[in-house]
Amino acid sequence: MASMFAGTLLLTLLLAPPVAAQCQMIYNVSVYNDAAVSEDQSMVYGVSTTSDSSILCTCGHGSYETRTTVYAPDGTQYVAASSGFASSLAVATNGRLGTWTVTGNARLFCSCAGLVGAGGVAASIEVQPVVRIQIEPTKQQGSSGFVLTGDTTALTATGYPAGGTFAWQAGPKLLLSGSATQPNVVVRGIEESSSMGDTWVQVTCTVGGKSAAASIRFTVREARRFAALNLGGLDATVRAPPRIRLHHLDHIPIPRPIRSSHRTAESLGNRSSQDVGASASARLSTHPFTSGQHAENRIVK
């Protein structure tokens, strides 16, 4: 009898429906922050993004607001808030160098807990000085510069923030003319390059106790010869025509127009790419010239 009762109880327990598992609400809201700075260091950007991975059960979340705060090195705060899961803020640095910090927080309404919030790890970024070199427009090839032997190329440095000091340096085959501590300098070619970009110019800008440097590759170009294309080529003697078409070739044959200046026939053998003055005839032969292969028209006075 006892064994029959035990068997009946066991069967009853096995057939009984399981107890329903109880849902437990887990709150899991995070805020992710990011900081960035513009290439010229003039603007700082802060972004905050809210993520809600909560287990809500019978609760509900809504009315999200995300807030971003940017802290400048001098302690100034800038705040932006947006409804939803993200907010962003852009702040002008105005020359304030150092560490900028971005923080973010979120607020939302929970049907079970009321108004709740969340935060995240702060992001930071360094704002440093920046300096750039501008090359004389007619002496630029790509991002590099060139200068003729015995000639000059003008360079300008622009630093951010303004008010910094400059220090220029030039590599081999080049000579700086003028003050090396001013934003504008002139570089002179003193020895021809053996390959493209085999020397350099660098400038360092210092402001607020912090420094930045920029450099460019340079080529010193040496002219080799020119020929009068419409007057018989090299070693041709002709009466002075109204127009001469010249073909230039230097030791690095890359097309590059060079500015001209007015000279007389006596200077023809010293510096070409200029107007030639002649009386009755002109001897056209091998002379030093400018750079690259380039055809130009020159009026004979």
Indicate the proportion of strand residues: over 45%
Please count the helical segments: 1
Give the overall silhouette.
Answer: elongated
Derived from helix and strand composition plus strand pairing, the structural class reads mainly beta
Number of strands: 24
What is the average per-residue confidence, as pLDDT, rounded to a whole number? 78
CATH architecture of the largest domain: Sandwich
How many domains make up the coordinates?
A: 3
Gap between N and C termini, in Å?
139 Å
What attributes does this structure have?
single chain; 301 residues; mainly beta; Immunoglobulin-like; 3 domains; five-stranded antiparallel sheet; five-stranded mixed sheet; 1 helix; disordered C terminus
Question: How would you sum up this structure in a few lines?
Answer:
5% of the residues lie in helices and 53% in strands. It has 1 helix and 24 strands.
Walk me through what this model shows:
- The protein folds into 3 domains: 101 residues, Immunoglobulin-like; 92 residues, Immunoglobulin-like; 77 residues, no CATH class.
- With 301 residues, it is mainly beta.
- Strand 16 and strand 17 form a beta hairpin.
- The strands form 7 sheets. Strands 3, 4, 6, 7 and 8 form a 5-stranded antiparallel sheet that branches. A 5-stranded mixed sheet has the order 10-11-17-16-13, with no helix packed on it. The protein has a 4-stranded antiparallel sheet with strand order 9-12-15-14, with no helix packed on it.
- The radius of gyration is 38 Å and the shape is elongated.
